[in-house]
Design goal:
- The complex is a heterodimer of chains A (472) and B (311).
- Chain A is mainly alpha-helical.
- Among the domains of chain A are: 13-121, no CATH class; 354-460, Alpha Horseshoe (Serine Threonine Protein Phosphatase 5, Tetratricopeptide repeat), CATH 1.25.40.
- Helices cover 63% and strands 4% of the residues of chain A.
- In chain A, the strands form 2 sheets. Chain A has a 3-stranded antiparallel beta sheet with strand order 3-2-5.
- With 311 residues, chain B is an alpha+beta fold.
- Chain B folds into 2 domains: 3-75 and 274-310, no CATH class; 79-271, 3-Layer(aba) Sandwich (Rossmann fold).
- Chain B has helices at 3-11, 94-108, 136-142, 153-162, 188-196, 215-227, 239-247, 260-272, and strands at 21-25, 28-32, 37-45, 48-49, 58-62, 65-67, 69-73, 79-86, 115-121, 125-133, 170-177, 201-207, 251-254, 275-279, 289-296, 301-305, 308-310.
- In chain B, strands 10-9-8-11-12-13 form a 6-stranded mixed beta sheet, with helices on both faces. In chain B, strands 3, 4, 7, 14 and 16 form a 5-stranded antiparallel beta sheet that branches.
- The longest helix of chain B has 15 residues, at 94-108.
- The model of chain B is unreliable at 1-34 (pLDDT under 50).
- Classes of the chains: A mainly alpha (472), B alpha+beta (311).
- The A-B interface holds A 296-307, 309-310, 313-314, 317, 381, 411-412, 415-416, 418-419, 422-423, 427-428, 430-431, 434, 437-440, 442, 444, 446-447, 449-450, 453-454 and B 119, 123-127, 130, 146, 149-150, 152, 155, 158-159, 161-166, 180, 182-186, 190-191, 193-194, 197, 216, 219-224, 227, 231, 233-237.
Chain lengths: 472, 311
Amino acid sequence: MVLVGAAEPGQHRRVPDWTFAHGRTECLAVDAGVTRRVTRGEAPGLGDDIRRGVEVDDARVVGKPASKRRGRIWSEMVNPRGIGARVRPRSMVEALRVVPARCLVVRSRLLLGVLAALFLASGDRPRAGAVQTDFWLTPALAPYRALIDAYRDGRTEEAIDGVRVFEVEDIHQIVDTVRDQDTRVTGTDRDPAPNQQLFRAAAMLHVDTADDLWSIGLASAATSHIEVAIRWADLGARRPEPDGSFRRRWYLGVGLLVFERGGWRVALSFVDLACEALPDDVPLLTTAAWLNEQGALAPVRLRDARVVGVRAAQGAKRDGLRAAARRARAALAVAPDATEAALRLARVRMLLEDVGSARELLLGLVGRTDLPTPHAYLARLMLGHLYAQAAEPERAERLFREASDLITEGQAARVALGQLLDTLGDRRGAAVVLEPILTAKPGGLIDPWVDYLMGARNGPALRAALRAEVRR
Amino acid sequence: MTRRWQALAVGLGLACVGGLTVTAVAGQTFRTGVDAVAVDVLVTRDGRPVTGLTADDFSVRDNDVPQRIDAVLLEDVPITLLLVLDTSGSVGGAPLVQLRAAAEAAVEALRPDDRVGLVTFSDKLRMVVEPPSPPSRLADALGRIRAGGATALYDATFAAFALREHTVGRTLMLVFSDGYDTASWLDPRAVLDTAQRSDVVVYGVHLDRFARDSWWNRQARALARRWLPTEPHLFGHQYLPQLVEDTGGSVFVAKDIGRLRASFTRVVSEFRSRYLLTYSPVGVESTGWHELDVRVEGRGRKVQARRGYFR
């Protein structure tokens, strides 16, 4: 069960698709006076509607975490403690009112069947995309359309200023309407249909608006625009999603932006959703593994001096590392030669003290001759570290020296070797090994280890390319 | 280098020296000999260094075995100041200007026969001034440092310990950082292990705008430090305080960048007020970890010394 936005009785509230992030599948909502258990995938059609957001009268959570859930859905999403709260009916009477929800499911199925029959019977239906662009040109949308046009013409500031005037809820309604008209995608990535191009432009406009808002410290407003942007981007979804498609690159580029602006935890929430939308995307899964790994290892500040706080931090770390391992494994399942994912899986296993399987994985990588040099370097470093830990200094030294030969300016390899020599009592040797990096000229190579930690994925360049694609 | 300085340099660093040397320093008798151990000690009262103490005021237990000691106040002895400065991206702009000014102030507090070295670090390590160099060389070098990149604090401090090979006499390592490590290869425990095998005294200056010195915060920090060896990633922000404690130094938290200058100057002056206790260990194993317990007579006096040493 998950939390759903609290509302005063009688006030309408959307159950957004965020609700079903993180694999949570249910919430409790009161709709038309009937409390129902809203379940993703509970019924074909109904589940699909829920993904877009269903209007309900009230939605609330009962139980301990309820007090924490006054904020926005996003803020709950980024706070792991706010997610996964249990939802229960407040009373037996309310529990009994859940029962009619089952009937609703049956009704929905019947309704869908009738609609499908009517749809198939109508022979003279308009071409997909044409409906969309017709809708797009309606006078009601003129103000918003003008902003998209401005953005596509390269007048970014004007477009962003204009979008910020809109209520985000109004834009959600626009997306709802667009969806109702036509969501079918008929173009290709190189030659997108007019509706696709508009979806993409809108998605990028809201991403840039979010970036602008983050830069002035309005994080909450920024995440609202990211929510809208995701909906626009998902309107251009294709099944199966082609490799390297706009949407795949968009999710990666925006995930990196969310990380750059919002930090680990917000980015983790975003990439979890992205991986749900694109479960076979190797760069996205690898990025998710990276974010989970680094998020798990991020320093924590204890709020008080109780050991329970330490235990909680350790638990969160283990969970994060396991999530990283899952993502890396998923990437390897799609692409067994994804060496970055293999390296990440190996390191996570080392951190989870599953040394045997980490060593096996790294031995396989070190034995390969087709690895990119940075990955060969990292594999040797990690395996050398395992040998050093296992009191096998000769093997460790050999691997550190091999890594140092692969990238002579490599700082991590020299530091690793220096530390090993120092431990063995050879202080002078350690000083000699370190000298080249200490006296190197400024600039130069960034160590692959730093890239590994910092996840150098060049988000700005990726987003610039996406921006260029949606321009006229 | 004077003869006195040379003799003292030999005695430092937990050195094993053949024969026996007796040297007078600052009116005290300083003795080194076979397996001599030197312990750098700071005595304070109400936060201020206490001077004028003699060997009779101190007691040292090595692995719980009392030792006979000599003490020497080292205010007249030249030092090597090894500056290890964080120049990661977060230090860019005004903080870097203040950091340069603080480093210059520290150098101004040195004496002509003192020596310096400068290592800067972001995700890259740079030896900007190789130790031991005259203080005058630092001023030019400071103007050349630039900020940018991530923070490899553990790797940088390890490299600075390795530079001990280049220095002579008493070495003061002054580490400045405004954040926690994000880019090191090394595990903090490995560097703490190296520190235990070195005689360098580390002083830390940490910039933390949100530092609050409440009782609860102190307790939480103490708990985090206890867990640092078990969870080096989660409690890595306790690395610098732990390093300082292990080597017998002090850590100063500057809440704003404008106070860096005062902190740097204070480090140098405090280091000059330290004593060097030397003794020839008796009744203890010659190798392995030696736990040290240094005490001083007199109410309200507080002793700072390294926790122990490896042989």
